[in-house]
Structure formats: structure tokens, C-alpha cells
From TrEMBL:
Primary residence: periplasm
UniProt KW keywords: Disulfide bond, Ion transport, Metal-binding, Periplasm, Signal, Transport, Zinc, Zinc transport
Record-linked Gene3D superfamilies: Nitrogenase molybdenum iron protein domain (3.40.50.1980)
Sequence segments annotated as region (Disordered): 115-164
InterPro entries named in the record: Bact_metal-bind_prot9, ZnuA, ZnuA-like
PANTHER family referenced in this protein's UniProt entry, alphabetically: HIGH-AFFINITY ZINC UPTAKE SYSTEM PROTEIN ZNUA, HIGH-AFFINITY ZINC UPTAKE SYSTEM PROTEIN ZNUA-RELATED
Basic and acidic residues bias (residue ranges): 126-161
Name of the protein this chain belongs to: High-affinity zinc uptake system protein ZnuA
GO molecular function ontology, one term from the record: metal ion binding
């Protein structure tokens, strides 16, 4: 009888003992880095689908449930995922979440000041200011360490380019933060998570060097991107960004902007205009009518990358390959 009771007791405790930490992520690039550390010891639940864009995403009841039940929510930050700010606060998950933009040691880029206009400004007035010359990021978008952001209240990063996952250096910082959180949530598997971090850092250094070597062959070739969101990747690898079709993906460029881009294409001898799979390529086709300029999709979210512990490396490979295919 005692043996039976003991067996029943162990059986009742087993599901609790085997429960994995539940990590809710905002977008796929965040999931990639979490997966590299979590392996098969934690459950990852992503909010924004791999084919959607966080720029115009709307929360669903099922997403709210994920947040409520999460052990930790890992997100980029309010300047990219504004839709998460209130739900995190309402669910009492704000303090326990990992906000990538707010991590110590992050090297952040600023958008040019003229990019930030009130939503009710006329589009043509906006167009008067958002044209770019070569490397305007470098002239107006200086790097900032997170610790210097005293002008921002709380976790707000007004004017900061939130596409931080495009920097291998910033990816390393998130990986360390995720490791620390998983170790605190699941100390039994602490060495497993730390080992995964070591493997990730080693693999990242090798992949970074490999991509730099490949992109060095095309880093003088001018191109235009769909939206102004690649500065981390471009500056890290020294690419020749010549402009963008739109500053914000949700804003369609007006006739004046289209004319300006066509002028930029001719003036800068642009070799490629990139589209994005998350948005209609119609505007790119309109821009390139009657020209010999090449076009190709550039996927900043890695929508077709297979998830797994090496997903972030595959994402960097995919993105660099997309650049090479059109610039080479």
C-alpha cells in the first residue's frame, strides 16, 4: 500500500516537475535567439506570425492569453511593438519582461530627426524632408549606448531605430539576457543554457566573419531598400545604402517621393531596389518601369527561416544572400 501511495505521489508530481518555462516572444528574430539558448528545455510562443509585420500588428485575445500565462515575455520594445505596451502593463508582466532596446550595452542607432512628423501632417510635406543621400544614417544617426538615454522616460526610445536584431553584436546581448533569465527560472538546467550561450557566441563570431568576407565584395555597390530599417546590418558590414522608398512601411510614398527616388536611382547609379515580402511590391515595380535596375526581396524578419537552435545563423545567411544576389 505504501508503495502504491508513493507511486501515485510521484505520478502526481511528474507533470509539475517536467513543466518547461514558457517564453513568449514578439517577433521571429527574437524567437530565433531565444531558441538558440532555450533548446528543448523551454517552450517558445510567438505573438506576431512569421509572415506579418510588427509595424501594423493588432493583438488578438489568444495573444493576450499567451502574455498572461508567460513566465517571461521577450520583445524588442515599445518603439517597434507599441501594441504590447499596455497588455504587458495590464498583465503585470512589464517588470519581468525582457525589453531588448532597454538592455545595458546596446549600441542603438537614431533615425534622422526629420523622419519624425506628426501623423496628421500632409504626405507631401513629409516627403519634403525624408529624402536621403548616401549614408544619412551616419550623418544624423549616431550610435548611442543605452546608458546615455536619460532624455527618454521609462523605456521609451523616441527616434531610435528598433531593428536591433540586424546587428550580431546586439544579438549577443539579448542571448546573454535570455540565458540569465532561463537560469533563474529553471536552475536545474542552468549548465545546459550556459553551454548553449557559449555555442551561440562561438558560432556567431564565425558566421559574422564569414558574412563580412562575402559582403566585402559588394560593399561599394549602391542600392535602395523598401523601408529605412537596415542601418544596423548596413553599418556593421559597411554596405552602400543610397536611400529608401519609405521611412515607415505603413506609409505609401506620394508622387513627389516617387520622382525623388527615380532621380536618386539615376544620380547614384543604383544597382538594385529591394522589396519586402511583408508588403506589396507594386510600388517597386512602378519605380523601375522602363529601367534596367534589378530588384529582389529583402526579408528583415526571416519569414522562411526554419526555427531551431541555429535559426539566427540561417537568418543572417539568408539576409546576406539576398544582398549578394542583387548586388553581385
Amino acid at each position: 500500500m505504501n508503495k502504491l501511495l508513493l507511486a501515485l505521489g510521484v505520478s502526481a508530481l511528474t507533470p509539475l516537475a517536467l513543466a518547461k518555462p514558457v517564453i513568449v516572444t514578439s517577433i521571429k528574430p527574437v524567437s530565433m535567439i531565444v531558441a538558440a539558448i532555450a533548446g528543448d528545455k523551454a517552450e517558445i510562443q510567438q505573438i506576431v506570425s512569421s509572415t506579418a509585420s510588427p509595424h501594423d500588428f493588432a493583438m488578438r485575445p489568444s495573444d493576450l492569453k499567451k502574455i498572461i500565462n508567460a513566465d517571461t515575455v521577450v520583445w524588442v520594445g515599445e518603439s517597434l511593438e507599441r501594441f504590447l505596451e499596455k497588455p504587458l502593463e495590464n498583465a503585470g508582466k512589464e517588470e519581468s519582461s525582457i525589453e531588448w532596446l532597454a538592455l545595458d550595452g546596446m549600441a542603438l542607432h537614431n533615425f534622422a530627426k526629420e523622419h519624425h512628423h506628426d501623423e496628421d501632417e500632409a504626405e507631401e510635406a513629409h516627403d519634403d524632408h525624408d529624402a536621403h543621400g548616401d549614408h544619412e544614417h551616419e550623418e544624423h544617426g549616431d550610435h548611442e549606448e543605452h546608458g546615455d538615454h536619460d532624455e527618454h522616460e521609462g523605456h521609451h526610445h523616441d527616434g531610435v531605430d528598433p531593428h536591433v536584431w540586424l546587428s550580431p553584436d546586439n544579438a549577443r546581448i539579448l542571448a546573454k539576457a535570455v540565458t540569465a533569465r532561463l537560469v533563474s527560472l529553471d536552475s536545474v538546467n542552468a549548465e545546459y543554457y550556459k553551454g548553449n550561450l557559449a555555442s551561440f557566441e562561438k558560432g556567431l563570431s564565425a558566421k559574422d566573419a564569414e558574412i563580412r568576407n562575402a559582403l566585402n565584395k559588394v560593399n561599394k555597390v549602391p542600392y535602395i531598400v523598401f523601408h529605412d530599417g537596415y542601418s544596423y546590418f548596413e553599418q556593421h558590414y559597411g554596405l552602400s545604402h543610397a536611400g529608401e522608398i519609405t521611412v515607415s512601411p505603413e506609409r505609401k510614398p506620394g508622387a513627389k517621393k516617387v520622382a525623388e527616388i527615380r532621380h536618386e536611382i539615376q544620380e547614384n547609379k543604383v544597382q538594385c531596389v529591394f522589396s519586402e515580402p511583408q508588403f506589396s511590391p507594386a510600388i517597386v515595380k512602378t519605380l523601375l518601369e522602363g529601367s534596367d535596375v534589378k530588384t529582389a526581396p529583402l526579408d528583415p524578419l526571416g519569414s522562411k527561416v526554419k526555427m531551431g537552435t541555429n535559426a539566427y545563423f540561417s537568418f543572417l545567411d539568408s539576409l546576406s544572400g539576398q544582398f549578394l544576389s542583387c548586388l553581385g
